[in-house]
Amino acid sequence: MRQIDRQAGLIDGAPAGYAEPGRSAGASSGSHRLSDGLKQRHVVMLSIGGSIGAGLFVGSGHAIAEAGPAAVLAYVFGSLLVVTVMRMLGEMACAMPDSGSFSTYADKAIGSWAGFTIGWMYWWFWVLVVPLEATAAAHILNGWVPDVPVWQISVLVTAALTVANLASVKNYGELEFWFAIIKVAGILLFIGCGIAAIAGLMPSVHLTPWHTLTGHGGFMPRGMAPIVGALLTTMFTFLGTEVVTIAAAESENPAREIGRAITSVVWRISLFYIGSVLVIICTVPWNDADLTGLGAYQAVLRSFHIPYARLITDGLILVAVGSCLNSALYTASRMMYSLGRREQAPRFVTRTTASGVPARAVMASSLVAFVACGANYLAPKYVFDALLSTTGAIALLVYLVIAVSQLRLRQQLVSAGPLKVRMWLHPFLGVLVVALICGAFVVMVLSEDHRGEVIATLGCCVALAAVGYLRQRRA
């Protein structure tokens, strides 16, 4: 198995000073070694925490308003696509656990330029998630402490979670575990209340689910095109499930933890998203202004006559965005650490503390996030919107890279030893995934609503690929 890692700069072929991640309980100050302090429950919940943010509680309302009740089809399709892609990623990750995850595998399967490109694109995505989530948290907190400006709260929230990321990974994992537990409990209660209301078990609530689904222009009131457009929103919200393969590199047995978590994590998240969306579209008409004005969860709780619906929703969103922001800083720093280890980022970011935390990578990622926060508040709105558009289609790009890498690496993985996780119906399902993703890109380019985001993302990708290719030629 170690032979297949040489070209990618893993283990046998690693740069001097590198130690295989997830193999020691700590690391001497100034070393290049990550800790192995994450337990399986941490790994699973960290992945869930990374992919359930404000997008579910608020963003789902925008997707429904765009596509009508048929938006649930975008979530179903997105779930099936993510389950398949995560299976492909799990096959590679169990054989080659690494904090760089798919970036490392792209390096090995396609070329160092590809690993460089997707690694930096992914890092850039999570760095821009920080100001988005921090702003969402700041607006909620500003309602509780109106005397403190939103931008100051945003900076304080980002600073607090930066400090949390500089602590030992075990403490960080524990914090994220409880963040995620609260989110999951809230989502399950929401779905449970929705099922009870739809079944007529809540006397004060009188719903007509079938009329809500079809009585406002039909199930597909705007046709098929908006459903494909909603897929972009769906893919954006699902991005984060792959964090399990990044976090597992800091556990005692990476291959085992990935094998246990890879499928369960995806199915759980799919249940949360699809279950929530089904409750929403059966309860609130798709053209109700409250879906986008109040947010999907609050609109549903309000229709159930739940007291303090806004306070409950705000509290849940606050925990969700805090968790997502926490995971964003963690993921960005680990990707930067992996890039540095492969000499595709400055080498100083690979230095770790005595507890095995890549503090310099954390600080560098946080610094860029603070600059993005400044752009969000101090610069004209179009500046931050332009930056954000460069990551609009990153989810589909990441999934495409994972699929291509698995197809190219499969023979080497099989020849190295028995696979702990196997991709289904190889290579046919993998080829189908690649075709569907490419088709989604084409449809989005043809759509006026999403053309700008896709072109900006692909433009940024091409620029990075050119830099990566030049670096590869010089190496």
UniProtKB/TrEMBL annotation:
<keyword id="KW-0813">Transport</keyword>
<feature type="transmembrane region" description="Helical">
    <location>
        <begin position="180"/>
        <end position="203"/>
    </location>
</feature>
<feature type="domain" description="Amino acid permease/ SLC12A">
    <location>
        <begin position="42"/>
        <end position="448"/>
    </location>
</feature>
<protein>
    <submittedName>
        <fullName>Gamma-aminobutyrate:proton symporter (AAT family)</fullName>
    </submittedName>
</protein>
<feature type="transmembrane region" description="Helical">
    <location>
        <begin position="386"/>
        <end position="404"/>
    </location>
</feature>
<feature type="transmembrane region" description="Helical">
    <location>
        <begin position="265"/>
        <end position="286"/>
    </location>
</feature>
<feature type="transmembrane region" description="Helical">
    <location>
        <begin position="361"/>
        <end position="380"/>
    </location>
</feature>
<feature type="transmembrane region" description="Helical">
    <location>
        <begin position="223"/>
        <end position="244"/>
    </location>
</feature>
<keyword id="KW-1133">Transmembrane helix</keyword>
<feature type="transmembrane region" description="Helical">
    <location>
        <begin position="452"/>
        <end position="470"/>
    </location>
</feature>
<dbReference type="Pfam" id="PF00324">
    <property type="entry name" value="AA_permease"/>
</dbReference>
<feature type="region of interest" description="Disordered">
    <location>
        <begin position="1"/>
        <end position="34"/>
    </location>
</feature>
<feature type="transmembrane region" description="Helical">
    <location>
        <begin position="70"/>
        <end position="89"/>
    </location>
</feature>
<dbReference type="InterPro" id="IPR004840">
    <property type="entry name" value="Amino_acid_permease_CS"/>
</dbReference>
<feature type="transmembrane region" description="Helical">
    <location>
        <begin position="43"/>
        <end position="64"/>
    </location>
</feature>
<dbReference type="InterPro" id="IPR004841">
    <property type="entry name" value="AA-permease/SLC12A_dom"/>
</dbReference>
<keyword id="KW-0472">Membrane</keyword>
<dbReference type="GO" id="GO:0006865">
    <property type="term" value="P:amino acid transport"/>
</dbReference>
<feature type="transmembrane region" description="Helical">
    <location>
        <begin position="306"/>
        <end position="332"/>
    </location>
</feature>
<feature type="transmembrane region" description="Helical">
    <location>
        <begin position="424"/>
        <end position="446"/>
    </location>
</feature>
<feature type="transmembrane region" description="Helical">
    <location>
        <begin position="110"/>
        <end position="129"/>
    </location>
</feature>
<feature type="transmembrane region" description="Helical">
    <location>
        <begin position="149"/>
        <end position="168"/>
    </location>
</feature>
<dbReference type="GO" id="GO:0016020">
    <property type="term" value="C:membrane"/>
</dbReference>
<dbReference type="GO" id="GO:0055085">
    <property type="term" value="P:transmembrane transport"/>
</dbReference>
<keyword id="KW-0812">Transmembrane</keyword>
